[in-house]
Write a structure and sequence with these properties.
This protein is mainly beta. The chain is 1% helix and 51% strand. A five-stranded mixed beta sheet has the order 5-6-2-1-10, with no helix packed on it. Strands 3, 4, 7, 8 and 9 form a five-stranded antiparallel beta sheet that branches. Strands 21, 22, 24, 25 and 26 form a five-stranded antiparallel beta sheet that branches.
Length: 766
């Protein structure tokens, strides 16, 4: 099983107190745009090239689209496989306008060799791309009307060589008299300059990459000012004789895939010029074969996206057998060489659906809580990033059909009539967990019933913690889960120690966590990707991997506290063949006599595991799964520090040395809960309590040395129903209690063996 946090990276879409605003689009739900019209006219012919202006219009019915893809074929075609990706149109593109779901895109100065051009449009949302729209064929006609024309025209060379001067000659084309001409090079790589008198742009490149130039010309006429722009990109090559990259793409049966796209990306972000062009080369996959010609020397990442004849998708794959960019291995390309990289792709599975049902009740009264959200967050980011929810009926019951996958599940009450989140109850994760880190993953492989929740009422406080999450390079980070952990709730609320509440950052990186029990808090931020290191807020510094380094925040019953800025460092991008794995347990076990330590232990869920290099730069992080297991791969040889951390536990640190002869490092450790002046050391004793829920007889089994066990059963209200001390045997102990006279509700069973304590919730159901 994948580690907990490796699976939980998709959970950043969870806003625990803003669920009503969440609407994640799935790939299979993304609709193709309706391409309504496309028209264009030619204004000028320059060096056998036509300068045209085109207008494209389409309708998009997707509720949360974040961009469009424009595909082009120079000529007339109805075959989608003949088209090439032209550009991604961002919603903020100055040439894109829209009203409601109708979009219009203006191509102001479009250079073509043919008077016939074909287009189609796709939609982007939630990291997915829709199928193509209908194809529009545009027959460009000469514009004979008497328009005021003021244009920059020229035919730029699209490639350059390092160390050799690149030039672009242009001219101003106009059909009106003008004065006060100014031409400026408003955007160019370092060293770019313009000779306005001779209308030449000059530049001597020093590094490879793709670079953008922008010219702007202005002038005055009797009727007003004129303005024109001209943009182009230049690829700077290291090679005079470039390389060839080729290969085959097959499915698991060895059959070549019919269609697809192969893409090469720069491995070094500095090689993408101004940072806007990540994709460097792309080519079509035809009958399982692809080939890049004219590839420059350098390091690249290679990605394959393939489709069947029925247009059913295969999972995208990166070299070498990686499912995402952060795990991909770069390839090194040299001049005048031919390289072959073959791929095997897996089809995206059609999911099988199963029924999951349960109920949501008040923890103390067991009365149903109607209109409660029950949220299912899919963890299979290879097949589908499911983000599904349902609402309980008037009897507190729910039922939902879910695709086969693993899920994090939680329930949260909502306010009647408004649909907004209610702060009257605390949210709860499956099974009876108060935080994401302690949640049990629900594997849906069959129909399941009895996925129940018992929500606890809490007082309402008019307070909140506000803040912002940014990267070390000062980029606002959206969709980051920020959790506030209560490290000291005061003596009256000790059971809420280390309870957490969460919020999610918005488009500007801002977050707010409301209705917090007064006490001392620390903040923790975790992104959905493997780019930024998660960590705890430290005033004036980057986040820390250790919760004990966190800056404490005192929260009162009323008021807004903050804003606090959490700054996340960037992981070092590394590639290797080393592995670090292990098991982390909570220090538990049978209690021994004398000074013997507690032995054994259950796997500790949600412990953070970090790897730092010798300069203490973060390399990777992950979190243990519900069994306490973790594994991190693709680590280069070298010396590292491994840090294990979980809120409420003492952190651990180890040194690891990965070498050619020994690059597989394994650890098997116990983590101890902390103790404070107000709290006894809390260890989970190896105990079995059954049945739970219970209606008649409660049975308790545990192992201990001979001694005294204090057993207590108490309600949330503080009322105590069982409170006695028993002589224990050396070995297994079996105790039973009748609960016939105990009201239904949620209770805490506490077993205290010489200061080592088990606390577990018990549901009494009549």
């Amino acid at each position: 099983m994948s580690s907990f946090y490796q699976k939980i990276t998709i959970l950043v879409a969870i806003a625990l107190f803003a669920l009503g605003n969440i609407n994640t689009i799935q790939a299979q739900e993304l609709k193709a745009p309706r391409f309504e019209y496309a028209e264009g006219k030619i204004f000028k012919e320059v060096d056998n090239m036509f300068v045209a202006m085109l207008t494209l219009g389409w309708v998009d019915d997707n509720p949360h689209v974040d961009g469009f893809g424009l595909y082009i074929f120079y000529g007339e075609s109805k075959d989608y496989h003949e088209f090439k990706f032209y550009k991604k149109i961002d919603l903020k593109d100055e040439n894109l306008s829209h009203q409601k779901n109708y979009f219009q895109y203006l191509m102001r100065e479009f250079l073509v060799e043919s008077k016939v051009v074909s287009f189609y449009i796709t939609s982007f949302a939630g990291g997915h791309e829709s199928k193509g729209s209908g194809i529009k064929v545009v027959n460009l006609k000469q514009d004979n009307q008497n328009h005021n024309k003021f244009m920059i025209v020229g035919k730029p060379t699209r490639t350059a060589t390092i160390g050799e001067q690149y030039t672009f000659e242009f001219e101003i084309e106009a059909n009106v008299d003008y004065t006060d001409l100014e031409v400026n090079l408003v955007n160019s790589p370092a060293g770019g300059e313009i000779d306005v008198e001779n209308m030449i742009v000059k530049w001597t490149p020093t590094e490879g990459g793709i670079y953008t130039f922008n010219l702007v010309a202005t002038a005055s006429t009797q009727n007003g000012d004129l303005k024109a722009g001209f943009s182009w990109t230049v690829e700077v090559m290291h090679c005079k004789v470039p390389a060839i990259v080729m290969g085959e793409v097959a499915d698991a049966d060895g059959s070549l895939v019919p269609y697809g796209t192969a893409m090469l990306f720069w491995a070094d972000g500095s090689n993408d010029g101004n940072g806007k062009f990540k994709r460097v080369y792309d080519t079509r996959i035809v009958e399982g074969k692809y080939e890049f010609k004219g590839v420059d020397a350098g390091e690249y990442y290679l990605q394959i996206s393939a489709y069947s004849k029925e247009q059913k998708a295969y999972h995208p794959v990166w070299y070498e057998n990686a499912t995402n960019f952060m795990d991909a291995t770069p390839i090194t390309i040299e001049c005048d060489e031919t390289y072959t990289f073959d791929f095997v792709v897996e089809p995206v599975k059609e999911p099988e659906f199963f029924k999951v049902s349960g109920k949501v009740v008040d923890a103390e009264t067991l009365e149903p809580i109607k209109w409660s959200y029950v949220k299912f967050i899919g963890l299979d980011n290879r097949n589908h990033n499911y983000n599904l929810e349902t609402v309980t009926n008037q009897f507190g019951e729910y039922s939902i059909k879910l695709p086969e996958a693993e899920y994090i599940v939680f329930a949260h009450a909502i306010k009647s009539n408004s649909g907004s989140i209610s702060n009257q109850y605390l949210p709860q994760y499956y099974k009876l967990a108060n935080s994401i880190q302690d949640a049990t993953i629900l594997a849906v492989t069959e129909n399941i019933s009895g996925i129940d929740f018992a929500l606890s009422k809490v007082p309402t406080y008019e307070n909140s913690i506000k803040g912002k999450v940014v990267s070390i390079d000062d980029i606002n980070l959206k969709n980051v889960v920020v959790s506030a952990y209560c490290t000291d709730p005061g003596n009256k609320n000790e059971k809420f120690r280390f309870y957490s509440k969460s919020g999610v950052t918005n488009e500007n990186g801002n977050f707010e966590i409301e209705n917090l029990m007064p006490g001392t808090y620390i903040l923790y931020a975790n992104t959905r990707d493997k780019v930024y290191m998660p960590g705890f807020f430290v005033e004036g510094k980057e986040v820390s991997a250790s919760w004990k380094d966190a800056t404490e925040i005192e929260v009162e019953a009323e008021g807004t506290f903050g804003p606090y800025t959490l700054t996340l460092p960037i992981f070092e991008k590394v590639h290797g063949s080393g592995r670090v794995k292990g098991t982390v347990r909570e220090r538990t076990g049978s209690i021994k006599s004398g000074d013997d330590e507690l032995q054994g232990g259950k796997g500790l869920n949600g412990a953070n595991v970090y790897i730092f290099d010798m300069q203490y730069n973060p390399v990777k992080s992950i979190s243990t799964d519900e069994f306490g297991n973790f594994e991190m791969n693709q680590i280069p040889n070298g010396k590292y520090t491994i840090l294990l951390d979980k809120v409420g536990f003492h952190p651990l640190s180890y040194e690891a040395n990965l070498t050619t002869n020994n690059n597989d490092y394994s650890i098997d450790v116990d983590m101890s809960p902390i103790s404070t002046s107000s709290v006894s050391p809390i260890f989970k004793i190896e105990t079995t309590v059954f049945p739970n829920p219970v209606s008649d007889l409660l049975n308790i089994q545990f192992e201990s040395a001979a001694g005294i066990a204090n057993i207590k059963l108490a309600a949330y209200s503080g009322a105590t129903y069982i409170n006695e001390s028993l002589q224990t045997n050396d070995g297994q102990n079996n105790i039973s209690y009748s609960i016939k006279n105990i009201p239904q509700g949620i209770y805490f069973l506490t077993i205290d063996l010489n200061g080592s304590i088990l606390v577990t919730p018990i549901v009494v159901s009549k």
